[in-house]
Write a structure and sequence with these properties.
4 strands, alpha+beta, globular
């Protein structure tokens, strides 16, 4: 059985090595990465940047909202600005199993 922290720690290490002293908007500190309940690693859909970035969340509701916006507002957004590469909850890797649509009748 693989130690689940190995995968999380590997991504944190890759992130820290790739960015070193460089900054990006919202870049979390190492301590923040280690203490966050939810950590998402993203590739930016920007051909100039090859490193992945990290975002921190209290729960997965924010990520659900992001995914929903991509679907609901797809006609207004040409391409998403980032692509989810890895997601960790309590330092355990989780996989996105699906996206649920919430529907209501249109008022005419």
């Amino acid at each position: 059985m693989t130690d689940y922290r190995n995968s999380f720690m590997r991504y944190v290490e890759l992130h820290e090595r790739a960015w070193g002293m460089d900054k990006y908007a919202g870049r979390p500190s190492l301590q923040e990465l280690m203490n966050a309940p939810v950590v998402a690693f993203w590739y930016l859909n920007n051909r100039r940047e090859t490193r992945f970035v990290a975002t921190l969340h209290q729960d997965v509701k924010e990520l659900n909202a992001y995914a929903s916006q991509l679907v609901v507002h797809s006609s207004k957004v040409r391409d998403p600005d980032k692509r989810l590469t890895k997601l960790f909850v309590q330092q355990r890797e989780v996989l996105v199993k699906g996206v649920k649509l919430s529907l209501t009748l249109a008022e005419n």
